[in-house]
Design goal:
Blueprint: H1 35-60, H2 69-98, H3 104-122, H4 127-154, H5 165-180, H6 184-191, H7 196-225, H8 230-241, H9 246-256, H10 270-282
Helix pairs in contact: 1-2, 1-3, 1-4, 1-7, 2-6, 3-7, 4-5, 4-6, 4-7, 4-9, 5-10
InterPro entries: UCP07580
Protein name: Metal-dependent hydrolase
Pfam families: Metal_hydrol
């Protein structure tokens, strides 16, 4: 079954924003009104720096096999964006430590599972296929971050009013760039000869590892932010399972990835990209 690509390619732009992270306080963090999602986003921030570097390594391992000059240019832009993401989240995580939200042990667990065990040991046992599987995991993770970015940027203003303004600027910028480069790793995977089985196996691994780390990280983060009261729990349930609901968006788009003819550009995000490109460019960082 062939692919039906509905969205034109968008070349990723490398931006180097400077955020006033020193103004983020423990009391605000990612927002107190929806503590479970606050804790979830906090746990993801801890995973981003080393995760982004893994993505860069996985994609660049195949860049010499790509003949398409447009895609080769996109690989460079993808690596540039991801490098900046890693640096910004490094600094954000340092700020977390400064205000008493020390997630460094969670980061160590992530690195141990993802890099020491998976990348440096298991994948090394299969020099050729392991490199391709690493790329398929990257493509799957990029699909997840694009899904998360699409969900957040599609929320009406009243739904994000609970988020600390500085943090929301980081979310806008990061989510925008995830949508801009959402197809790069996937296209490198396909053009370098990647097949369907390894593609879905990569998604299955990504879901298991990221799901485990997100759950553990969210629970640990709740100890810092404080467990929600009944009113907050109701608000959380509505946010996760209402309309639009984060849970339904994630489940739908993860399942969509298993469709034989899937391509990231099947989902047209051009309107969101155009809107937030303007917002990000006009924001004072």
């Amino acid at each position: 079954m062939g692919q039906t690509i509905v969205s034109e390619r968008i070349h990723p732009q490398i931006r180097k924003p400077k955020f006033p992270l020193e103004k983020i306080k423990r009391e605000s963090g990612f927002g107190k009104k929806i503590p479970f999602f606050t804790a979830f986003l906090s746990s993801l921030s801890v995973l981003f720096p080393e995760g982004e570097r893994f993505f860069i390594r996985s994609v660049k391992a195949f860049q010499n096999e790509i003949q398409d000059e447009t895609l080769r240019s996109e690989i460079k832009a993808f690596a540039g964006q991801e490098a900046v993401h890693g640096n910004v989240h490094d600094k954000l995580n340092e700020r977390f430590v400064e205000i008493g939200l020390d997630f460094r042990s969670h980061e160590k667990m992530f690195c141990w599972l993802f890099f020491d065990i998976l990348e440096k040991n298991i994948l090394k046992l299969f020099p050729v296929w392991g490199k391709r599987l690493a790329l398929s995991i990257t493509a799957a993770a990029e699909h997840f971050t694009a899904t998360l970015g699409r969900f957040l940027l599609s929320l009406p203003p009243e739904k994000v009013a609970w988020i600390d303004p500085i943090t929301w600027k980081i979310i806008e910028w990061h989510s925008l760039e995830e949508l801009e480069h959402k197809a790069v790793a996937f296209d490198v995977y396909q053009k370098s000869g990647g097949g369907y089985f390894t593609r879905i196996f990569g998604m299955t691994i990504a879901v298991q590892l990221l799901g485990l780390l997100a759950v553990v990280g969210t629970v640990r983060a709740l100890f810092y932010f404080g467990f929600p009261n009944p009113k907050q729990i109701v608000r959380d349930i509505r946010f996760f399972f209402g309309s639009p609901g984060f849970t339904w968006a994630v489940i739908f788009y993860i399942l969509e990835y298993y469709y034989w003819g899937f391509h990231p550009n099947n989902e047209d995000d051009q309107a969101l990209i155009a809107k937030f490109s303007t917002i990000v460019a006009s924001s004072a960082y």
